[in-house]
Write a structure and sequence with these properties.
single chain, 80 residues, alpha+beta, Pemi-like Protein 1, Chain: D, two-stranded antiparallel ribbon, 2 helices, 4 strands, elongated
Length: 80
């Protein structure tokens, strides 16, 4: 499939056909990595790692555990 490049300020923009975007799991404002490989442009979706609460808490130790934080007096109907 051929598409044309468009000029926007100091950038050339590439319109990705919706069928290809859907196959790649891309949507408006998706973050992608753009790299040059052997003279070819490669566009890869950036996938944020997903962590479970257990995985996140496994990094907490007595050395990096934060102490209690004083947030001041109650100002409303907070229940502690």
């Amino acid at each position: 499939m051929q598409v044309s490049l468009q000029q926007q300020a100091d950038f050339l923009t590439l319109a990705i056909p919706k069928t290809i975007a859907n196959q790649m799991g891309l949507q408006f404002n998706s973050i992608v990595e753009v790299i040059l490989v052997n003279g070819n442009l490669l566009v890869k979706p950036v996938v944020k790692p997903k962590f479970t609460l257990e995985q996140l808490l496994s990094g907490v130790t007595t050395d990096n555990l934060h102490g209690e934080v004083d947030t001041g007096q109650s100002t409303g109907n907070e229940v502690y």
